[in-house]
Every structure is written in structure tokens, then in C-alpha cells.
Amino acid sequence: SKGAVGGHAAVTFLSKSSLSLPLLKAIWTIADSKQQHSLNIQDFYTALRIIQIVQSNPNNYNTQAGIQKITPQLVNHFKDTPLPPPRFDGISLPNTTQAQTSSVPAPSPAISTNTNSSLDAYSMTPSERSRYDTLFPTYSTKNDGYVYGNEAVALFSKSGLDRQTLRAVWNLSDAPVDNRLSKVEFAIAMHLIVCISKKNLPLPTTLPPSLAALQVDNSDASSVGSN
Fold first, then answer.
1. Helix (H) or strand (E) holding 40
2. Is residue 91 classed as helix, strand or coil in its secondary structure?
3. Which residue(s) pair with 4 in the sheet?
4. What is the pTM of this model?
5. Alpha carbon distance, N-terminus to C-terminus of the chain
6. Alpha-carbon span 8 to 32, nearest angstrom
7. φ, ψ for residue 212 (rounded to 5)?
8. 50 close to 74: Cβ distance less than 8 angstroms
9. Nearest CA to 107 among 92, 90, 124, 121?
């Protein structure tokens, strides 16, 4: 939706902060407080601000006890504390303290204009994800949360792609390998097929970062929900 950053794109971007996965998970939980699996501009600023705080005081947050300090109150605690801008690999951002006070949505275009354009080429929009998720129950015939080879072949073959390409798509999507596709793996496979057959993108040799991040986002959201 307009003004929101999809979960996989946000996770891909925030992971460039070089913070550990447990830290990023804690930050995501605070920023995505409404559990919408996407961040609006204010949520995104919250995530950037917490990353800014953590990067400025790494020894305070790099332990399990430190991760417990990542709370909604943390941003308020540092509200009037000037800090260096957050650091992201290959991306330069304006100081988010200034950006917040002047209400300039500076970080948002940084996602689409960063130097690694491959993040955008294969990224999945929320509407595309919704379409794949709607298809999933039709082909998950065992009702066990997975799509198996026969059902997948019947659907994927409709794309007109050759079997070798479809096998490569399956191998990219089925990670970790268990010869079946979970809901998110199914969405990734469908999206790769659409990218190749409809958007004329090449078959990637490895899973593109934006789609790999979708798997990370999905596993994090699942584990957050089970706590």
C-alpha cells in the first residue's frame, strides 16, 4: 500500500545494518507493533532510530540481556539525544533525528534507489503476495500446509516455461530442501515464474536477496507469534 514498506523489502534493507538476527528481530517486533508485516513511514523511522541507538551503543545491546532492553520505551529514552546517522552497507542516509523533526520521508526512497538494483527487480509486492497466497489452498491438497511436486507441476507448467527452468525454480524455492513447498516457498516459486515468463527477467542462479529476505521475514514472524 502507498506509504508502506513491505516486510521482505524492509527486512532486506534493515539487515544491511550488520546487526545480528536476534537484534533485528527485536527491532522489527517494536516497529511492526500492529503486526501488519509491513512498516509505514513512522514505523520505519522507529526501526531506523532503534538501529541508530544500538549502533551508537553496541556493547549495551549485543548480549541476550541487551536484547531485552529493546523496548518501545527505548526511543523515548533517547528522544533528545543527538546520535550519528545509522549505518547501512552501501547506503548513505540523512540523520534520522533531523528527518523526524522536519517530517521529511528521506529513508523511503533509499530502498528503491540504493546501488543494488537486483533487490527491486525480483521483489514481491503485497498484492502479488496476496494473489499467490489465495492460490495456495487450491494446490495444498493434503491440507497439511504444503504443496507437493505433482500439484506444483500441474500449476507451474501452465506458465509455458520448460521443465528444466521449472525444476531450477523449485530448487531455488525449496529451502531448506524437503521436496515440498510451504506457503512462502510456494509464493516465491510462483513469483519467480511470473518474473521469468511475464516480466522477462532472467532465471537467477541463486535466490534474489529480496525473496530470500521474505523467507527470513516469514520465519521471524512465525517465531514472534509463537512466543
1. strand 38-40
2. strand
3. 40
4. 0.48
5. 28
6. 13
7. -65, -40
8. yes
9. 92
Provide the b/e sequence for 34-43 (b: ≥16 CB within 10 Å): eeebbbbeeb
Type of residue at 215: Q
DSSP H helix total and E strand total for the chain? 14, 2
Cell of 41: 513511514
| Cβ neighbourhood burial of 169 (10 Å; 0-12, 13-18, 19+) | buried
Residues 107/45, Cβ–Cβ less than 8 Å:
yes
Joined together, the cell numbers standing for residue 25 give 528481530
CA 85 from chain centre, in angstroms, equals 22
- CA-angle at 192, arms to 34 and 221, nearest 5°: 25
Residue whose C-alpha cell is 508485516: 37
pLDDT digits (tens, 9 = 90+) for 150-185: 899 989 999 999 999 999 999 999 887 889 999 999
Stated length of the chain? 227
- DSSP 8-class letter at 147: B
CB 53 within 8 A of CB 83: yes
Q: Give residue 118's Cα distance to chain centre.
A: 14
Angle at 98 between CA 92 and CA 99, to 5 degrees: 65
Distance CA 33, CA 88 (A): 23
Tell me the per-residue pLDDT of 65-82, one tens digit each, with 9 for 90 and over: 888 888 888 888 887 778
Query: How deeply is 15 buried, as exposed, middle or buried, from its count of CB atoms within 10 A (0-12, 13-18, 19+)?
Result: middle
- CB-CB neighbours of 137 under 10 Å: 12
Is-contact 112 146, C-beta < 8 A?
A: no
CA separation for the pair 169, 163 (Å, rounded) = 10
